[in-house]
Amino acid sequence: MKKILGRKQTSDARWIEAINRIEELVPRDELDKAVATAIKTIKKAVKGKNVAYAWSGGKDSLVLSEICEAACVKACMFAHTQLEYPAFLKWCLEHKPEKCEIMDMGFDLDWLAKHPTMLFPKGRELNKWYQIVQRAAFTKYFFEHNLDMIIVGHRKADGNIVGPDGTIRKGSGEIRFSPLADWPHEMILAYIHYHNVELPPIYDWHNGYKCGTHPWPSRMYTETIENGWREVYAIDPSIVTEAAEKIDSARLFLESEVAK
Q1: Residues in contact with 49: Cβ distance below 8 Å, sequence separation at least 6, in sequence order
Q2: Which of left, alpha, beta for 61 (phi over 0: left; psi -120 to 50: alpha)?
Q3: Angle at CA 110, nearest 5°, toward 108 and 112?
Q4: Sign of the CA dihedral with 241 first, then 245, 251, and 253 last
Q5: Using CA atoms, how far apart are residues 146 and 152, in angstroms rounded to an integer?
Q6: Which residues of the chain form beta strands (DSSP E)?
Q7: How far apart are the first and last CA of the chain?
Q8: CA gap 133, 11 in Å, rounded
Q9: Each residue of 17-34: pLDDT tens digit?
Q10: Rounded to an integer, what distance in angstroms lies between the CA atom of residue 177 and that of residue 136?
């Protein structure tokens, strides 16, 4: 296998190049071996345990889903907020796995208006989004369903902490297992290519691969609040129009657009 992609933050142009060259970068037989190993690893890890996997609708979770299903792990969860891109949420609800439980974590415009630092944040504030949505959902589902383990699609190539042997054991008793921890981006793209996996619309939008799946207020790399609204407006103007009723910066952005 040949690697040409670095961290997830690599430009979308580089991702598209990798997609166009994927058969050169990852031969089918190499992918098949990696998939067989992942299935074997999951079966060994979950034997005799109550387990489920986390699904987000993103490329990693789409691959994880098919591999977990092949390993006979069927139960899964999908967490969302009230601040999703409508087209993305619609796609997820239409394409979710058969035994997927939907978890509405809340966080609406009223909440966002009261927490302005969570709008197009950077650094520590950006990390809070992962904590209050994805991580909180993992924990909630884990204990509500008395799981022994929850399987997640976290990979080292994205900068995720995955723990020894892909396993994180929390003091609370929660265990998260990342069977694809060592997969590079190219392997994920190869699976999508060879297995004809349909991707959500988010990857067709500006910085789709760079930003990945996310509630729209946590959109990364916007530099400024104004540019954040500009990027979201280009994706779906209705989001900004609705937000303008409760958030001043959205209203000011719309007023400046009208004045042009």
Answers
A1: 148, 149
A2: alpha
A3: 70
A4: negative
A5: 17
A6: 51-54, 76-80, 100-104, 149-151, 167-169, 175-177
A7: 50
A8: 25
A9: 999 999 999 999 999 999
A10: 16
The answer to whether 136 touches 104, Cβ cutoff 8 Å, is no
Are the CB atoms for 143 and 120 separated by under 8 Å? no
The torsion angles phi and psi of 79, rounded to 5 degrees, stand at -105, 140
- Per-residue pLDDT of 143-168, as tens digits, reads 999 999 999 999 999 988 899 889 99
3-class SS of residue 151: strand
CA atoms within 13 A on the CB side of 215: 27
CA distances from 186 to 22, 145, 146, 153 (A): 7, 34, 35, 15
Which pLDDT score is estimated for 257?
A: 79
Please give the structure tokens belonging to residue 213. 């799946």
> For the whole model, what pTM was predicted?
0.95
Residue 8 has a pLDDT of: 57
The CA-CA-CA angle for residues 214, 216, 219, to 5°, reads 70
Could you tell me if 171 and 72 are in contact, meaning their C-beta atoms sit under 8 angstroms apart? Answer: no
Burial (CB count <10 Å: 0-12, 13-18, 19+), residue 146: exposed
How far out from the chain centre does Cα 143 lie? 22
